[in-house]
Amino acid sequence: MLQAIAIPALLITGTDTGVGKTVIAGAIGRWFRRHEQARVAVCKPVATGCVRRREGLVSEDAEFLAHCADARNPLDLICPQRYVEALAPAVAAERAKQPLDWESIGRAIGLMSRHADVMIIEGVGGVMVPMDDKHTFLDVAEWLAVPTIVVARPGLGTINHTLLTLVALRSRGVSVAGVVINRYPTDTPPLAEETNPRAIEKWGKTPILCVVPQEHIPTKPTAEPIPPGIAAAIGSVDWAGFVRR
What we know:
40% of the residues lie in helices and 18% in strands. It has 10 helices and 10 strands.
């Protein structure tokens, strides 16, 4: 229902909701802006848990992504489908009696692609989260057909969650660029956190691209939205290498 993206792009998904996809997507977008001097488009196709403002319903994740990438597109293009309740998109849409509009998502991606060098797309929840009565986010990953980054937690249980995510993506032919371990303890890590990255690489047959430390994210817009530790971890990867054609 969505077309493959016409420009170089990365899809940022995760093993679950709340793993920090937005921060990682924003940091990668900022990397492209700063290191490649690229015109970066950012997209969060669907957001739930949005807030009501004078200008309407707003995704705070979309605001953060736009700020990180210096994106000039209006927020209703960056996040074309927005719901108030913090639920799976299919459930939020049903309760709001506002069915997901796939056409508006495709139109937004197409419009933003015209004036950008690269696009960073942030998923919603995990790959199996229902988007409507027939589709999950896994369908979206397959349709967009771009290299995908999996954001994972560092702690106990992350091996299972990450491997399941990798299996699901590969079952649809999605190209997995690698895994980012997010919110890694800055003090001495427990044994699970210490051993999990290597285990994910071994059994997931995919590289750990970087390990991102747990740092405080400013709750209000600042000139530098990405803390230095996170920026340094993201900066250790040549993200452009995944999107070159």
